[in-house]
Structure formats: structure tokens, C-alpha cells
Amino acid sequence: MQPFAIAPSILSADFARLGEEVDKVLAAGADIVHFDVMDNHYVPNLTIGPMVCAALRKYGITAPIDAHLMVKPVDRIIGDFIEAGASYITFHPEASEHIDRSLQLIRDGGAKAGLVFNPATPLDVLRYVMDKVDMILLMSVNPGFGGQKFIPGTLDKLREARSLIDASGYDIRLEIDGGVNVKNIREIAAAGADTFVAGSAIFNAPDYRQVIDAMRAELALASA
Ligand SMILES: O=C(CO)[C@H](O)[C@H](O)COP(=O)(O)O
């Protein structure tokens, strides 16, 4: 299992001050920058693209950037995110014409590759590509918007994904995204997640460090 990592979703950050916001949340103890890319086609919302990712690198952000592509089709944008400095690039299997090829494109470009599963999307395809993924991201809300409630059925799916990862012997991150907060993070960790995306729980709080510290305290209890 990978060490626990907290990945604030910048979807809930102040976009007018994005560089400062990312600096601030990293200084507050975040490990990974979760970068939500929405195309108003695969999901009913529109956010940011590779130019903003490149701008964060130019601004001086060196932490891993985890680009979650909620776009369809995916292949033609993968190269742009690699050039922009994304560390992880994840996509939804139903948004790719050729899942194996999309994963390979990401790894060939030097980034880490991942698959994202919506709450009602089965994990079946994983059995064919377990050796080609560095991250599995389970959505615990339907994608498109921050600030939604965690869907409790995702806990069973996390256990299923954790068993698949452990049985595979590969070193794959298991990330959870949607409705994660201080109150539920311990239960989510106990179900098998090691990487926790949290948008509104962190960016809507007055003190980012206080929330991240509280999350880490809960995670320490989960592994005790
Ligand atoms: O991918 C997403 C939505 O599609 C967001 O990352 C996610 O919902 C995080 O926001 P919050 O923590 O507020 O639920």
C-alpha cells in the first residue's frame, strides 16, 4: 500500500489567485495537487486545461500534479498534459476508444497513468490492464461538480479495488474523490484508499492547515 497522501482538488480554489492558492495548500501540508479537467461534454461543466497546468509549473509548483481528465475523447489531449508537466494523468474508461492505448500514451510520455471509475461503473476492465496502471481513482460522487455528498456504496467498491490491487502485487495508488472530509476520511482509509482528494472540505475552510492536520490525525487512527 502507498503511504497516505492528501490531494486537494483545486476545483474549489479561487481561480483568480490559483498560484497563491496552490502554494498555500502545499504549505499547509498537502502532498499532491488534484487538477480537475472538465469539457462540458463528458461532464456537464467546464474548467481548466493544459495551459493552466503549464502555468502552475511556470509559477514554480514542483509538487506532483494529478490531472483527472473528465473529457471525451481523451487521446488527443494526453500529450498536451504531458508537455504541461502533469505527473499523473487519469481518464475514464468509457471516455477512451482504446483504453490500453491511452494508458500506453501516458506512460510513453513519462507520466503515471490511471483509470477513473464513476460510482456505477464496474471495475471489470482492470483485470486486463493491471500492469499498466499506476493509479486507480474511484469517484464517490458523480463527476462534474465539487461540494457533493459522499456516496456510501463506494466503501464496498474501495474494498473490492483494494483486494484487486493487493492480489496483483503491483504498487498502485488507490485514490478516492468526492465528498471526502474530516468526518469520513478514517472510514474511507479503513476501506482501502491511500490517496484522498478533497476540494470543498479544504478550500472552503478558513484555515487549510487545520483541516489537513485534522485529516492526518484521522488517518493516523485508521492505521493504528
Ligand atoms: O472530480 C471532482 C468532481 O467531478 C472533484 O474533484 C470532487 O468532487 C472534489 O470536490 P469535493 O471534495 O468538494 O467533493
Automatic annotation (TrEMBL):
The keyword Plastid does not apply. GO terms for molecular function: D-ribulose-phosphate 3-epimerase activity. InterPro entries: Aldolase_TIM, Ribul_P_3_epim, Ribul_P_3_epim-like, RibuloseP-bd_barrel. Binds 1 divalent metal cation per subunit. Keywords: Carbohydrate metabolism, Isomerase, Metal-binding. Catalyzes the reversible epimerization of D-ribulose 5-phosphate to D-xylulose 5-phosphate. Pathway: Carbohydrate degradation. Substrate binds at S9, H68, G144, F145, G146, G147, D177, G178, G179, G199, S200. It catalyses: D-ribulose 5-phosphate = D-xylulose 5-phosphate. A divalent metal cation binds at H34, D36, H68, D177. This is Ribulose-phosphate 3-epimerase. The active site is at D36 (proton acceptor), D177 (proton donor). The keyword Isomerase applies. Signal peptide: none annotated. Its EC number is 5.1.3.1. Belongs to the ribulose-phosphate 3-epimerase family. Its cofactor is Zn(2+); Co(2+); a divalent metal cation; Mn(2+). NCBIfam families: PRK05581.1-4 (NF004076), rpe (TIGR01163). It comes from the Bacteria. PROSITE patterns: RIBUL_P_3_EPIMER_1 (PS01085), RIBUL_P_3_EPIMER_2 (PS01086).
